[in-house]
Amino acid sequence: MPDVSLTPGLPSGTAARPRQRGRGLAHALVDDFGVRIRDGALRPGDKLPTESEIMQAFGVSRTVVREALSKLQAAGLVETHHGIGTFVLQQRASGVFRLDAGDIATSVDVLAVLELRISLETESAGLAATRRTEEQLLAMRQALDDFERNVAIAGDTVAPDFRFHLQIAQSTGNPYFADIMSHLGTAVIPRTRINAIRNQDKGGVYLSRVNREHEEIYAAIARRDAESARAAMRIHLTNSRERLRVAQEAARASAAGDKRGEAPDRR
User: Fold this and answer.
1) Buried b (16+ CB within 10 A) or exposed e, 84-100
2) Taking a C-beta distance cutoff of 8 angstroms, is the pair 188, 117 a contact?
3) Is 35 or 71 the better-scoring residue by pLDDT?
4) Is the alpha carbon torsion for 16, 20, 22, 28 positive or negative?
5) I need a surface site. Which of 60, 147, 187, 234 has the fewest CB within 10 A?
6) How many Å apart are CA 131 and CA 123, to the nearest integer?
7) Is pLDDT larger for residue 258 or for residue 58?
8) Could you report the per-residue pLDDT of 147-184, keeping only the tens digit for each?
9) What is the 3-state secondary structure (H, E, C) of 187-232?
10) Hey, how many other C-beta atoms are within 10 angstroms of the C-beta on 71?
11) Is the dihedral angle over the CA atoms 61, 10, 228, 74 positive or is it negative?
12) Cα dihedral sign, 61-117-165-198
């Protein structure tokens, strides 16, 4: 281990790890903070160090830090408030939903759509922040209010969810953004195609998390902060992708375990 100095704001004893290659850097950060959160070294409500402090302590880029924070958010361990910081959440039962083996094929397609949405809607949010009208902002607010109301009564959240994202596309002033979203339709919302998200979301944990992410996007667009709007949208969609990817990997591992446990056919 190289001799490195500690960074202010990091827990005592934190030192940068050796540089790794590829995606291992982000995973190392996730593991490090995940252990501290689960062991209680970082408690609910604690504020994580800034991106710059983490970069300095671990010797990694801002991109790596943001990827790691996105994964921690997707795991339900932290929550980011733009312009304020990232805070540790109260731990809940691991995993928001679990896929059955039969859902794996569908989840692959949903992941592909989420990848498209990350590219499309990140820029859409940035443009909407600079071009939206007050009427369009009001329409976004109404969609989010309907979403929150329906979470409380276990009503339809898909329609207001899609309305919110479509209204952002329409607020870009570029009709092609809205055309693509309209063409994709409500199928862009993962829970319309994956029953596990609907059936296993006890207490609305998943939907409450989605709602918080939507509010971050809305707040940035409302204050005409294009960069924060892009960041909030990217975090929202990346979190959706990460939640689904984790569930997908668990389903594959479970299916593989079931196959190994099958008795050999000796007929």
Assistant:
1) eebebbeeeeeebbebe
2) yes
3) 35
4) negative
5) 187
6) 12
7) 58
8) 999 988 888 899 999 999 999 999 999 999 999 999 99
9) HHCHHHCCHHHHHCCHHHHHHHHHHHHHHHHHHHHHCCCHHHHHHH
10) 23
11) positive
12) negative
Amino acid at residue number 130? T
How many other C-beta atoms lie within 10 A of the C-beta of residue 233?
Answer: 29
Whether 142 and 79 map to the same domain: the answer is no
| CATH number for 74 | 1.10.10.10
Residue 116: pLDDT band (50, 70, 90) is very high
Look at 235 and 98; give whichever has higher pLDDT.
235
Alpha helices in 40-131 (DSSP H): 51-58, 62-74, 104-131
Helix (H) or strand (E) holding 184: helix 175-184
CA distances from 58 to 20, 37, 248 (A): 11, 18, 30
Looking at the fold, whether 68 and 124 belong to one and the same domain comes out as no
Residue pair 113/184 in contact (Cβ under 8 Å)? The answer is yes
Tokens for 181, please give them: 């979203």
CB count in 10 Å sphere of residue 253:
10
* Per-residue model confidence (pLDDT) at position 103: 66
Q: What are phi and psi of 79, to 5 degrees?
A: -140, 130
| Six token digits for residue 48 | 């994580």
* Structure token pair of residue 42: 């970082």
Cα(121)–Cα(107) distance, integer angstroms: 20
Q: Which token pair is 180?
A: 């693509």
> What mean pLDDT comes out for the span 89-109?
66
* Same domain? 178 vs 205: yes
With tokens 């299916």, the residue in question is 255
